[in-house]
Amino acid sequence: xxxxxxxxxxxxxxxxxxxxxxxxxxxxxxxxxxxxxxxxxxxxxxxxxxxxxxxxxxxxxxxxxxxxxxxxxxxxxxxxxxxxxxxxxxxxxxxxxxxxxxxxxxxxxxxxxxxxxxxxxxxxxxxxxxxxxxxxxxxxxxxxxxxxxxxxxxxxxxxxxxxxxxxxxxxxxxxxxxxxxxxxxxxxxxxxxxxxxxxxxxxxxxxxxxxxxxxxxxxxxxxxxxxxxxxxxxxxxxxxxxxxxxxxxxxxxxxxxxxxxxxxxxxxxxxxxxxxxxxxxxxxxxxxxxxxxxxxxxxxxxxxxxxxxxxxxxxxxxxxxxxxxxxxxxxxxxxxxxxxxxxxxxxxxxxxxxxxxxxxxxxxxxxxxxxxxxxxxxxxxxxxxxxxxxxxxxxxxxxxxxxxxxxxxxxxxxxxxxxxxxxxxxxxxxxxxxxxxxxxxxxxxxxxxxxxxxxxxxxxxxxxxxxxxxxxxxxxxxxxxxxxxxxxxxxxxxxxxxxxxxxxxxxxxxxxxxxxxxxxxxxxxxxxxxxxxxxxxxxxxxxxxxxxxxxxxxxxxxxxxxxxxxxxxxxxxxxxxxxxxxxxxxxxxxxxxxxxxxxxxxxxxxxxxxxxxxxxxxxxxxxxxxxxxxxxxxxxxxxxxxxxxxxxxxxxxxxxxxxxxxxxxxxxxxxxxxxxxxxxxxxxxxxxxxxxxxxxxxxxxxxxxxxxxxxxxxxxxxxxxxxxxxxxxxxxxxxxxxxxxxxxxxxxxxxxxxxxxxxxxxxxxxxxxxxxxxxxxxxxxxxxxxxxxxxxxxxxxxxxxxxxxxxxxxxxxxxxxxxxxxxxxxxxxxxxxxxxxxxxxxxxxxxxxxxxxxxxxxxxxxxxxxxxxxxxxxxxxxxxxxxxxxxxxxxxxxxxxxxxxxxxxxxxxxxxxxxxxxxxxxxxxxxxxxxxxxxxxxxxxxxxxxxxxxxxxxxxxxxxxxxxxxxxxxxxxxxxxxxxxxxxxxxxxxxxxxxxxxxxxxxxxxxxxxxx
Amino acid sequence: xxxxxxxxxxxxxxxxxxxxxxxxxxxxxxxxxxxxxxxxxxxxxxxxxxxxxxxxxxxxxxxxxxxxxxxxxxxxxxxxxxxxxxxxxxxxxxxxxxxxxxxxxxxxxxxxxxxxxxxxxxxxxxxxxxxxxxxxxxxxxxxxxxxxxxxxxxxxxxxxxxxxxxxxxxxxxxxxxxxxxxxxxxxxxxxxxxxxxxxxxxxxxxxxxxxxxxxxxxxxxxxxxxxxxxxxxxxxxxxxxxxxxxxxxxxxxxxxxxxxxxxxxx
Lengths: 1012, 266
What we know:
The structure holds two protein chains of two kinds. Chain A is built from 33 helices and 17 strands. By secondary structure, chain A is an alpha/beta fold. In chain A, strands 4, 5, 6, 7, 8, 9, 10, 11 and 12 form a nine-stranded mixed beta sheet that branches. A five-stranded mixed beta sheet of chain A has the order 14-13-15-17-16, covered by helices on one side. Chain A has a three-stranded mixed beta sheet with strand order 1-2-3, with helices on one face. The mean pLDDT of chain A is 88. In chain A, helix 26 packs antiparallel against helix 27 (779-797). Chain B is an alpha+beta fold. Chain B has helices spanning 3-27, 29-41, 43-51, 60-84, 91-115, 137-168, and strands spanning 174-181, 187-195, 200-208, 214-222, 227-233, 240-246, 255-259. In chain B, the strands form two sheets. Chain B has a four-stranded antiparallel beta sheet with strand order 4-3-6-7, with no helix packed on it. In chain B, strands 1-2-5 form a three-stranded antiparallel beta sheet, with no helix packed on it. In chain B, strand 3 and strand 4 (214-222) form a beta hairpin. Mean pLDDT of chain B is 85; it is low at 114-129. Chains A and B meet through helix 5, helix 12, helix 13, helix 16 and helix 18 of A and helix 2, helix 4, helix 5, helix 6 and strand 1 of B.
């Protein structure tokens, strides 16, 4: 059988009946004919007739109609006011918006829209919701139909287009509701056509039932050409066998028809009308139901149930007719039957979750439901004929079992679609990593097992989940989702906070790093004195850059917190602000939040990021304003009409960075000058002559501050610079003594650092290749490549002299930013390539692995060094690991018992403690006093020439070689110590005349040498 | 945001700033600390964001980030301005600075919003996007608060672990003995501070170099962290030695310090 199974025809009994002839080729046109009998267009029902090869004569048809509806036809013909009332209703017809949700089905859509343009109704609007479009075909169809509507019906009809990127029928429906608030909404599917009186009959129902919240029309088959379409009708079709008898469902009819079972006898989403505000009242259509979700349907069913449970009224109006093109093949029908089953129980699941109070009523209905499922004469299967595939019924029932899980999966997907997406859950995993690292720290302090394993596993755990999620958000399919816009920043913020916590938990009770202690001391001075620019011996140059101390002192004053607690808070907030503004800057420049987030995450793999960049240092306070300067001046739009408020914001940021940190201020100026010069050369004509202005102004501000306020800056900066230059010169001359010794890290750490460096070089080379091959690279890309080269120059610095590693690390704070952007661009580019899903997943996995490799390389080669990576027992000259209660107690003792500002000689740790906790003036040039076992006149002369008042001796220097390579700031044997200091050299002062040992705590002795 | 919204926002900021300032100045405690954080780290920047026309068109993420960053900038530049005005940086002046900037920003905000051609004005009555079909309240709470609570719990446990282990970290016990001159040449101050793991019996003997007999002797029980000191009269022209013994062992000094005869007064 290749012809249609059945013909579907309308028969208007007030008109002469037309016969149904044979097919043009003389064959049988169909096996059967379904005749919709109408009186003055009012439908009475279907008459189904066998269709012989010769066709059906008019008399035969009339006789069949007489048999089926004779009495009703006669009655209606004699005293029907059906048409008169319709005319009356149309005179006061309310405006209606017809909504058609569609996705990539232009042909059925055009057919549907044609039927809507043919409505015999004055003044209505058609809104086509294009859901998650992949092409512009739908838009093109709507544009053509809209033009035609304007030509044919003028202002009477308008056809509008609404694009909704998020997939899902419920989402599309809800966006439509939000788009046209306060209007009557009539819904029709794109695979339907509307009867020309559809809207008029809807208006009739609304007029006759003023309390109706919802009107449901009848959906009849538009064709029954295939067996699958006929079987679908046998199963009840869209109208579930309700037929053509009007009905009203309201609280008053609950006894006759429960609003909870059987579902759904009320109406169907393919032909439903809601009064204004009703959909809003029930909270909209459930996003976890409907086409495009695992539940596959029933968003309409749940909506009707909610209306009824809320005391609303639904009117079934069978005169409002739409015609549906059922699925033509059995596979499609199978999917639909599965969808009905899944959707039904999914809707119940949703209902239970939304209204747990319905559970007892539902339980009471369970026996009836089970009977119906088993009964052969239930409403659903009563019309099923023998040839109906029983497998379809079984598939429908099996699918019901999957409904609850399908709904929960839909909820999860919807959760992923919300603005925060999976960020909270991903960050929980990251927090688990924080816990693991905290355990590693505790294990280091208390000597517990598996501390190293916990440390590295925790580091990876903190980093990998957010990075993997960020990379997954860059997939082509995920880019348009709300999560792709809303999730990156929370993930970046969460990752930043968690990594900052790794730093805080290392030493939660006090600052231990020397620079932090110095700023702690400066802040304490500010809190005590209430004055800025009060000299502090610990770090004199910081006095003229008081930004950080102001923040700390302000917070101490306003909160009552200790300087340490306030400092930790200030450093954390400033660090978070820095990363946040970097994110904004990259996001604004690239218009790509996911790229910005991946770049920020990769930046956290820098060696100094974890500790140094978030310590309580003046650089930490300045960094956010470096980023803010670039962000603000970047938005000023030089080359176009400048936006002066952004320029003002940029200038404000320049001022803040200038008074906060010298090097950051210089970097800011350099960045602005470079960007200004490039924009002037390559920017758009217009206002571009203004482009260098920010750099020039910033230079003037910074130089002015340096000359007027920070007069002692020059020697502070030139000393290490000269030292570095000398070391570089020596390296170029081939002197091996100038190179810094390689760190004695474990072999695997060295290997992973080397691999990480090779990976970065690989990215750089690839980017350079692209730059050469594609001459049209934007200016920004070239600047990123240039900045990345600066990072690799910094890597070379690492091998220059004893200061090299520290300076290289500090430089990476700035130079690793373009590297991060370069690598992020490559990783995001991989995952965005159009490819099979498997390939995309592979790209994400590979990107995550490479990012993890960079993290491990950064942590292995960064701060703290491997011997101080975990807290633990005291180590000699090991920065954080050298600060212990005995040293701290001695330093506090000097504050209480020695005049402030006394000059104290000590080893590196002692100098830090005594200049901060002790408030004394550190003498850094007295290392030679500790090296020889005999006291000499030369030592005495040195003491006198340096005006030393007190000598701090830590006898533990005789127990270990220095971890950092130096016992003293100016150690003549730096990096060449092969054995600990001679104990006799440390205790020799016990026997020197006129030297008093005034303090003894066992390991630490303080000697008063003022009488020498 | 329309003009009415801008005024409401400005009033909200001003109210929050005044309340925070009052809590800082007159209440203190944890509530005052919280208010202080708000006043120093959030409110001035938030008010500036509303006052700067260009920033009014930014998204919530940008506004939040800028609010914090500009608050930091306000404190830094404001502190220097206060110093230039010869004002001491105290609780009162810091509070006044943050409150003043917030109130000024809040006052300028609505005016800037009215003038700004950049501020978008959505059509009146339009529903906010994406509110329909959102999960029920309990679902929202579950999906947002539960992960947040779990994350906070994990971080809290990590913090507790870190702090507790830092406090319990085994340290080498020690006790410090010191001697310092006073303004009187025949008097010195001798002190002991115990950092032993338990309460310990100490004996301090002070003697002059030339005399074997002790000038003075003292016994004390000190718990960990406790300190003892006293002034002792000694021969003005001799080396003075102080020795510390513990746990009844009076033969081997546990610590010793000395002050030379040519000592200089502190």
